[in-house]
Amino acid sequence: MITPLSEPIVNERGERVLGVGEGSASVDDVRVSIVLAHHERGIVVVQNSHRSIWELPGGYVDCGERAADCALRELFEESGLTGSEIVLLGILDIERPSPYSDILKCALFECRAEGAPSPGDAEISAVAFWDPMSILGPISTIDAAILRGGLRGCA
Q1: Whole-angstrom Cα distance, residue 52 to residue 125?
Q2: Which residue has the higher pLDDT, 9 or 68?
Q3: Is residue 153 part of a domain?
Q4: d(Cα 65, Cα 52) in Å, to the nearest integer?
Q5: Helix, strand, or coil here: 25?
Q6: How many angstroms separate the CA atoms of 44 and 35, rounded?
Q7: What CA–CA distance (Å, rounded) separates 141 from 48?
Q8: According to the model, what pLDDT value does residue 155 have?
Q9: Confidence check: pLDDT of 23 > 70
Q10: Is-contact 37 43, C-beta < 8 A?
Q11: Does residue 56 have a pLDDT over 80?
Q12: Residue 27 falls within a domain, yes or no?
């Protein structure tokens, strides 16, 4: 069951998190996975080179791919780190503005990350590690809320 947020969280692209489902929610209709990856140096964040913004690793689920496998694949592709011990934290309902004008189901996972970081492709320009004392900016508003524990049932 998705619990509506009292006030939607809006990111730099106008996408709005409307609600959060608990970790037991179904991932059957999830189209995107993101991951809170815990490394010995902190939580993994990547810098999107197209938008010049820090964000959690993630991306679209490929046809026939499980949402958890997508999260681990995206972690590796974007950061060069290997993930293990993956757990579903929750499902986000994200309303996308025009031209999409739809609700995107996004699975949020948590895992352990190991290895030496290296940006994996042209989409990512840097890999860093966040801790509560970090000052990274700019960072996606939705991802900042997840990092700071602002989404009930997810982080």
Answers
A1: 8
A2: 68
A3: no
A4: 28
A5: coil
A6: 9
A7: 14
A8: 47
A9: no
A10: yes
A11: yes
A12: yes
